[in-house]
Amino acid sequence: MFNLRKLPYDKSAFSGVFISDKTFDYHYEKHHQTYINNLNNLIKGTEFENKSLYDIVLNSSGGIFNNAAQVYNHDFYWDCISPNKADPSKELESALNEAFGGNFKETFINSATTLFGSGWCWVVVDENKKLKIVQTSNAATPPINKQIPILVVDVWEHAYYIDYKNARPKYLEEFYSNINWDFVSTAYEWALKEGMVSVKFYMNDIHKEQN
Ligand code: MN
C-alpha cells in the first residue's frame, strides 16, 4: 500500500504569493491522492503488488505506469518549491550557465510555456552528466529514459487553474520565484554522484512503507 506523502510545508505557505491553499486542497489532497488510490487498486493481485515505486515506474505500462509515474512526478514537484528563499549551489549555478548560455530562466519558462497540452517540464542530468531541459506529456517521466530529474514544474491545468486561470506564463514566473534551490542543488549533487541510484533512493525514502 502506498500512502500520500506529507508536504514539507503548510498548505497555506504560498498563499497570496504563488499558489493558494485551495489549490493544495485539489491538487494535493484530491489529484495526487487519486493517483495513490488508483495505483493501490491497480497493483492488487499483479506482479507489482509488493514492488517499490521505482520498480513499478521503470517496469510497468498502461494504467499502472500512468498512476505510479504521476505519484512520483507529484512527490518530486512538491519538493521543488519552498516558501524559504535560497540560491542554487555554486556548482549548479555554473553548470546551468554553461548548459543554457546564461539564459536558464528564460529557456526553462519558454519550454514550460510551449509544452502543448498536459505534462511536465523538467531539468535532468542525462547519461553524459549534462543538464538538459525536457518536456514530458501526460504521466511520462524522465527516469524511464535514464535521465535523472533535478527540477520539475507541473503544467497540467489543474496545477494553476484555480489561481491563474489560463495564464500559464504567470504561474511559471511565480513558480520560478519559489523554487527550492536547496533541494534542486542537492538533487544535482546526488545525480552526479549516484546516477539512477539517486532516483531509487528518493522514491524509497518518500515511500518507506512500501519497501
Ligand atoms: Mn498535477
Unreliable stretches, pLDDT < 50, 5 or more residues?
none
The hetero molecules present are: manganese (II) ion
CATH topology: minor pseudopilin epsh fold
Label the overall shape: globular
- Strand ordering within the main sheet: 2-1-3
Order of SSEs, N→C?
A: HHHHHEEEHHHH
Mean pLDDT: 97
Q: How many H/I helical runs? A: 9
Structural category: mainly alpha
Please sum up the structure shown:
The protein has 211 residues and is mainly alpha-helical. Helix content is 52%, strand content 10%.
Describe the protein in words.
The structure is a single chain. It contains nine helices and three strands, in the order H-H-H-H-H-E-E-E-H-H-H-H. It has a three-stranded antiparallel sheet, with helices on both faces. A hairpin with a 5-residue loop joins strand 1 (119-125) and strand 2. The chain has a single domain (19-211), classed as minor pseudopilin epsh fold. The protein has helices spanning 21-43, 53-59, 62-79, 90-100, 104-114, 161-164, 168-177, 181-194, 196-206, and strands at residues 119-125, 131-137, 148-154. The protein is mainly alpha-helical and 211 residues long. Helix 1 (21-43) runs antiparallel to helix 3 (62-79), helix 2 (53-59) packs across helix 3 (62-79) and helix 8 packs across helix 9. It is globular and about 50 Å long. Manganese (II) ion (MN) binds at residues 27, 31, 74, 154, 156, 158-159.
For the structure shown, list the relevant keywords:
211 residues, mainly alpha, minor pseudopilin epsh fold, 9 helices, 52% helix, globular, binds manganese (II) ion
